[in-house]
């Protein structure tokens, strides 16, 4: 998913978008993220290329912000959609100055904060999930005995 359009002859437009300290030149959507996108963000069938194009537009329009200040793996789109992403350096690709370019790998879409209130505080949400799963496991082991 690259954006290398040039509007005038012999002018250079960067083919990366800056997000924090990363220069993103490519977006990869995992199959898990596609399934979560269809279930939690947009109902119905969604093509990976359309999701990547939408993410690229969100990046270009500065609609993606970090969820927490210090963490670099959870992001918000339009202050509503929670996304988990990883970054990897693109081998042998740099910008004009020599800075490394990155690939943004969308791991999953957690959902919309407007629909799932628990996403407003991810740390307490994950601790609740761990606790509820642990309690389910404890109950299941009691039943087996």
UniProtKB/TrEMBL annotation:
<protein>
    <recommendedName>
        <fullName>Periplasmic protein</fullName>
    </recommendedName>
</protein>
């Amino acid at each position: 998913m690259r954006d290398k359009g040039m509007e005038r002859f012999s002018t250079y437009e960067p083919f990366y978008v800056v997000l924090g300290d990363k220069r993103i030149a490519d977006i990869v959507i995992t199959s898990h993220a596609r399934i979560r996108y269809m279930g939690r963000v947009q109902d119905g069938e969604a093509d990976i290329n359309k999701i990547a194009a939408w993410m690229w537009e969100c990046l270009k329009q500065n609609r993606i912000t970090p969820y927490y200040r210090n963490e670099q793996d959870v992001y918000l789109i339009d202050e509503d959609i929670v996304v988990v992403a990883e970054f990897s350096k693109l081998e042998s690709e740099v910008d004009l100055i020599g800075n490394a370019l990155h690939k943004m790998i969308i791991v999953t879409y957690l959902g919309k904060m407007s629909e799932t209130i628990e996403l407003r505080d991810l740390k307490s949400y994950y601790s609740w999930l761990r606790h509820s799963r642990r309690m389910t496991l404890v109950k299941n082991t009691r039943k087996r005995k």
